[in-house]
Amino acid sequence: MPFTDILGQEKASSYLQLLARGQKVPGALLFYGPDGVGKAKTALEFAKALNCMDPMARQTGDACGVCASCKAIAQGTHPDVTFVDFTYQARLEVKKDFSSKGYQEELEKEIAKQQHINVDTIRDITAKSQQKAVGPGWKVLIIDQAQTMQGAAANALLKFIEEPPQKTVWILITSKRSVMLRTILSRCQPLAFAPLSEDHIRQILTQTGTETDHPDLCARYAAGSVSGALKADAALTLLSEAEFGPKGVNAQGPSLVSAGLSRTLVAARQEANAALDVLTIALHQGWTQATDESQRRSYQDALKRFENYKRSLSRNVSPALVLETALMSLDGLSIPIF
Asked: What is the CATH class of 3-192?
């Protein structure tokens, strides 16, 4: 896709086009902003622009999208462009040939375990950064979820992003810039990515053919993120069992919703967290619409409780128990969720 197809990130896209057009690119860039706003897609589009074989497209700082280089980057097979994420790391961990029996099942299990970009993965990609480029364009090395690099991994990366070889650029992608090492941040040129508007989220969901039961509500509860919209859709489906309405929560709703969570702990925690996020936004909306001080206090008290419920989830308390307790605490409140 050309830069113009990346919705809601016109400022970042324009700057990257300027860099690609002039071929004067910093050794390391930091793409930061909320999850699900197009940072990874923009990084790959920038890699295409730096390696596009169409001279007309290169003059505009964009990519044609149809040359052999652009297609290879889109397919993840370009020898000079490496995208490191938890899937990439899991492939390094699985000690089987990809064509062997049981490989895909083992890979999926390994992906589910990933929580940090580890030092071995950083050593793998830094070794690639020192290899001679195959094509005439740029080597582009992208690390997604860069905030998950811990001490050894981050330190292993430092000297490579400080003085990369000629026509080599590192792109670190993060949703939590504040937790990254200052020594890493000081070596990267930051580029901010903004939350998406509800209109852009609806448009992206339509363009990608994503089916949702509540497209408008998903955009409302997305918190400016496409991934947030997808999580909200699942949460809304889950919460519909609780029969929210003018009379509050159905007596059986909390237990029905908690029973609907996934059986695996990681997935259940994510689902419960998404449900709490939707409920928090709805509670805030209820607070803004409250007509008297007593109602406002009720919503404020509920919002404070929900802060505690969110903290409980991060401390490994049972997601089903947290969510059921949260829903039961809303008895008597009218929640404008649907």
From this structure: alpha beta
